[in-house]
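Work Package 3 (structural annotation) set out to generate three-dimensional models for the target panel prioritized at the project kickoff. During this period the team completed the workflow that converts sequence records into discrete structure tokens, so that structures can be stored uniformly alongside our sequence database. As a representative example, we reproduce one entry of 455 residues exactly as it appears in the project archive.
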Amino acid sequence: MRLDMPEPNPKQELFFLSRARHTAYGGARGGGKSWAMRNKLILLALRYPGLQILLLRRTLQELKDNHINQMQLILDGIADYNGSEHVFTFPNGSRIRLGYCALEKHVYQYQGQEYDVIGLEEATHFTEAQQQFLTTCNRSPRPDFSPRMYYTMNPGGVGHMWVKRLFIDRQYKRKEKPENYLFIPAKLSDNPALFENDPTYLETLENLPEDLRRAHLEGDWDVLSGQYFPEFRRVVHETTLEDGTTVTVQPHLIPAFPIPEHWTRFRAIDYGLDRAVCLWGAFGDMGQAIIYKEYAESNLIISNFAAQIKARTNEPIQATFAPKDMWQRTQDTGRAKAELFWEAGIELTPAANGRVDGWLNLKEWMKPIPGGDGVIAPRLQITDNCTELISCLPNLQHDEKNVSDVAIEPHDITHAPDALRCMMDGRPKCYNAPTQETLYQNYDEQVEEFLDYGR
């Protein structure tokens, strides 16, 4: 019996050819994700005798609708199907098992089992704990085949954050290696077969609300329900003005470049033992702001954090901003963090406003405005070497009790944005370094003048 398979589109072909340890495909809707996953696994089963493959979706009904029914047609006369176990067995001994994980605990039904290949359909529907557990099942004793996992996904869902971290932001921890992760972005425009079968699908996506349209049509991973900064954009895009004019807008994310020497520069920090972050920002002749450098580390005491900041600063700095709570005395020592920084050689300046006003001010900085040469661009841009800030800022959510504020959970993503909030909360003149006598006076009165570019 001959396998009859249509020709893949160029993005699907890249997916077929990948041998990376972890390969992800998709982003936008309509890119042909399920077709690519299904046929990739079939081709592997046919090529490598005795291969053990696991294909997962969140629910059994999704599994039937998206894969089981189609695979029964494709593999009729080629592989035997066991309906009770949801397993296709090939004449060469390869097996494709189709499973589901509707609940968190369902992943443990695969404990102790060994699969050469695991496919996660709609990977953002799986939690990070589920994905990490499944990696322990992805192993192979074969000398002719390296174990691998394949993922298809769209933005959104319970697994949005871990998928975005690994494949979009490429932020790795512990022993995760960048070379093991490959993302192949695919949009509706990459899948002409769907255009032919359903020419109205594009209109359906274009008619979605702005955030959903960006996620499902453009494959924009920086759009979330409840996102505090939906205006954050990584790439050049088009928008329609109130008068109906369509304009091209420059992104917030730009390549790193040499900062002109005459630009005024500031630092801003947010300190916690769980995460300490310092940002370096430069302000240009026209009031534009560029965040051009960052340092982030965990488990640093203040003196060590201050030493790392000074070691990374080889330019003149006008002031180093910090949240107001850095001037509060601690019960344990009776001293404030700002005092400890001062003793370590870094003078801090308190942010001008509270949290809500600071976040709203940051929104103003991120809003695109026309420039003198007709270019529409945000006043605030971030260079691509500031990976922590770039990863955390678009993931901030509205606080459930106060939508004007940012949610403090998950807490680990708030440190870099808090430092940015302090940076953009105004550019006060440096005030005198704190002393034991003046440190706890009303420090608002110490900052008399603000160059209020942020409003």
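The domain at 264-451 is CATH 3.30.420.280 (Nucleotidyltransferase; domain 5).
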